[in-house]
Specification:
The chain is of the alpha+beta class. The chain has 3 domains: about 180 residues, Beta-Lactamase; about 90 residues, Orthogonal Bundle (Helix Hairpins), CATH 1.10.287.130; about 150 residues, Heat Shock Protein 90, CATH 3.30.565. The chain has 11 helices and 12 strands. The strands form 3 sheets. Strands 2-1-5-4-3 form a 5-stranded antiparallel beta sheet. A 5-stranded mixed beta sheet has the order 7-9-10-12-11. The longest helix has about 90 residues.
Length: about 450
């Protein structure tokens, strides 16, 4: 047991180490997705803010012609004054207004006004009518000569004047990224904490499942080993059975061959001697026929190809009949019968149950020493009748119980297997109790009524 526990602990430890890698990887992937999602939400907020500023703070100060041709110094001063009055400079790092030619017509940095730059992807998207937002370090070509410490949120919003469906220019806004990063970090830390707790609980919850699966695996392994041991034992019993039955067959065949050769080769046999030899040949042939018959019967019962002819019988009387026959065949046998004092009626196949009783009683007589009695008891249980056949022989092991010899002195090892199948076909149970040197008790039960009869009674009452 300690070795099994140590193996289980080592297995759980290996699982823990192997499972930790994908759990950590999963956590990192989820964390990255969460961070990207949070950043995306803040960028969307930036796009919305830039669009509002463009529509309410920039477009009212310009017209389409001024956007295309540029602004005078007085117009630029007026825009600066209005934007400062709106306190935009406290939250905004830079403002630019672009026309479609890529020229900055207005900026809060005068050095950029009037300069023309190559239209990059973000500006192009805005000029096509779509707001965009991204994170930049402030070192883009359009910011050359400008002092913009990054990182920054760069937002473009299209400028569309009333009465015109085309985009006339774009409004560019630079927002500080540090507050956004701080907000992202705060929210991310909370989400990471929750994620870590969730993954830790998930990681911990796998151990009981793995432990249970390992227990099932060990049980299945133990069952497989037990089945293998049983299979090996059955193979050994099969070999013993084949040896035994081959011995029986060869004994009979030797007798048949020997006596037939004597008859064939002798020239001085009288009629009585010929009849005696013929009788021995007949008995040996009959023995072989019976052995083959029992083998075929057992095979048919195991394959479920036997149909029972059930009738209502008194088991006390049936036991008595079989005992009387056994006494005639073995006059020296001492057999006692204890019948069931109340009703012992059962639904059964007369021939099969008679064969069952003959097998058990003949075995008990065969394995009991001379002058030792065999006891048979019939007792009624709740819904079944139990028959017990006891002898005072040497006893037998479990394997002997499976492979014990069959009928009479001409046993072939098929007796108890046939008995077991007869009981099984009737829906009963069979077992034995034995101690070496103290004899054997074989018990079997038969249902008082078949299932069909019980169902018929219930239906009739209903």
């Amino acid at each position: 047991m300690p070795r099994i526990k140590n193996e289980s602990l080592r297995g759980l430890l290996r699982f823990g180490l192997l499972a930790l890698v994908p759990v950590v990887a999963l956590g990192a992937a989820i964390a990255q997705e969460l961070n990207a999602d949070i950043q995306g939400r803040y960028l969307a907020t930036g796009r919305t803010s830039a669009t509002l500023i463009a529509q309410t703070g920039i477009q009212p100060l310009l017209n389409e012609q001024e956007l295309a041709g540029g602004l005078t110094k007085d117009q630029i001063d007026e825009i600066n004054q209005r934007l400062q009055g709106a306190s935009l400079s406290d939250e905004v790092r830079r403002i630019k207004v672009w026309n479609r030619a890529g020229t900055v017509i207005y900026s809060d940095n005068p050095a950029l006004i009037g300069r023309t730059f190559a239209i990059d992807a973000d500006l192009k998207e805005a000029l096509e009518g779509n707001a965009s937002a991204s994170v930049t370090d402030g070192h883009d070509e359009e910011n050359s000569g400008d002092n913009l410490p990054g990182p920054l949120i760069q937002v473009y919003a299209p400028l569309v004047f009333k009465g015109n469906i085309n985009v006339s220019g774009a409004f560019e806004l630079y927002l500080p990224y540090a507050p956004v990063q701080a907000a992202i970090d705060g929210e991310s830390h909370r989400l990471y904490a929750l994620l870590a707790i969730g993954l830790a609980l998930f990681y911990a919850s796998m151990f009981p499942i793995v432990a249970l699966a390992d227990r099932w695996r060990r049980r299945a392994q133990a069952a497989a080993i037990a089945n293998l041991a049983t299979q090996e034992r059955l193979n050994a019993l099969k070999s013993q059975f084949l040896v035994r039955i081959s011995h029986q067959f060869r004994t009979a065949l030797v007798g048949i061959e020997g006596f037939s050769e004597v008859i064939r080769d002798s020239e001085q046999l009288d009629l009585d001697e010929v009849k005696a030899y013929a009788t021995d040949i007949h008995n040996d042939a009959e023995r072989l026929d019976q052995a083959f018959g029992r083998m075929l019967a057992l095979d048919e019962m195991e394959a479920g190809r036997v149909a029972l002819d059930k009738t209502r019988l008194d088991l006390n009387r049936l036991v008595g009949d079989v005992v009387e026959r056994a006494r005639k065949q073995t006059p020296t046998a001492v057999i006692t019968v204890t019948p069931e004092p109340s009703s012992s009626m059962v639904d059964c196949d007369h021939a099969r149950v008679q064969q069952l009783l003959s097998i058990l009683i003949d075995n008990a007589i065969r394995y009991s020493p001379a002058a030792n009695q065999v006891d048979i008891a019939v007792t009624k249980q709740t819904n079944e009748i139990e028959v017990t056949v006891s002898d005072h022989g040497p006893g037998m092991s479990v394997d002997d119980g499976i492979a014990a010899a069959g009928n009479g002195s001409r046993g072939t090892g098929l007796g108890l297997p046939i008995a077991r199948q007869i009981v099984r076909l009737h829906g009963g149970r069979i077992w034995f109790a034995s101690k070496p040197g103290q004899g054997t008790q074989v018990h079997f039960t038969l249902p008082v009524e078949t299932k069909a009869a019980v169902e018929a009674k219930v239906t009739a009452k209903a």
